[in-house]
Amino acid sequence: MTPTPVPDRIVQADGRAKAYRPLPIADRTAAVLAGLREYEAGEPFEAHEAWEPAWMGTDDIAERALLQGLIKVAAAEVHAGRGNAAGVARNLEGALERLVYARDAGTTQAPGIVIDLDRLIADAESRLAQARAGDPGPTIVIPWRPTP
Q1: How far is the C-alpha of 129 from the C-alpha of 111, rounded, in Å?
Q2: Number of Cβ atoms within 10 Å of the Cβ of 62
Q3: What pLDDT sits at residue 12?
Q4: Whose CA is closest to 32, among 2, 5, 23?
Q5: Over the stretch 62-119, which tens digit does the pLDDT of each residue have?
Q6: For the chain, how big is the Rg over CA atoms in Å?
Q7: Which residue of 5, 33, 71, 95 is 20 to 30 Å from 48, comparing CA positions?
Q8: What are phi and psi of 13, to 5 degrees?
Q9: Nearest to residue 100, comparing CAs of 145, 65, 76?
Q10: Position 8 pLDDT exceeds 60
């Protein structure tokens, strides 16, 4: 019997093909939690790197959008650390697009966690306004809790 081939690309909500490398839920959960630890420790680049395997490891479009949103929030923090308000704004625009998509699709969970997306979106919108005015602004807190 020939095994069913696994696609290496899936289509995102925006219609673009993106990498898909299946990752078991336990490994995605570990990656999400590792990313949160890095982010909360003030290491947004490492958080971004930790979240990428989780994002690429699921074929659920809404979950991918949520994880990409977190990745872009972390990327905004990297730019903030460099004083690059334009980079903060650019990444927050992308983050908001994905976070709103996830929320509207009814997804508030990434593997192992629940995120208060309404609060995260409101904080990102506020920070975006600051960045557009030239102020990279304060770090966005990701409001999350472990899944029960």
Answers
A1: 30
A2: 19
A3: 62
A4: 23
A5: 999 999 999 999 999 999 999 999 999 999 999 999 999 999 999 999 999 999 999 9
A6: 15
A7: 5
A8: -60, -30
A9: 65
A10: no
Q: What is the pTM of this model?
A: 0.89
Type of residue at 23: L
CB 69 within 8 A of CB 62: no
Tell me the pairing of strands 144-146 and 113-115: antiparallel
Q: How far apart are the first and last CA of the chain?
A: 40
Six token digits for residue 139: 């770090």
3-class DSSP string for the chain: CCCCCCCCEEECCCCCEEECCCCCHHHHHHHHHHHHHHHHCCCHHHHHHHHHHHHHCCCCHHHHHHHHHHHHHHHHHHHHHCCCHHHHHHHHHHHHHHHHHHHHCCCCEECCEEECHHHHHHHHHHHHHHHHCCCCCCCCCCCEEECC
Mutual orientation of helices 85-104 and 117-132 as an angle, nearest 10°? 150
The answer to whether 95 and 69 are in contact (CB under 8 A) is yes
The structure tokens 């903030």 sit at 80
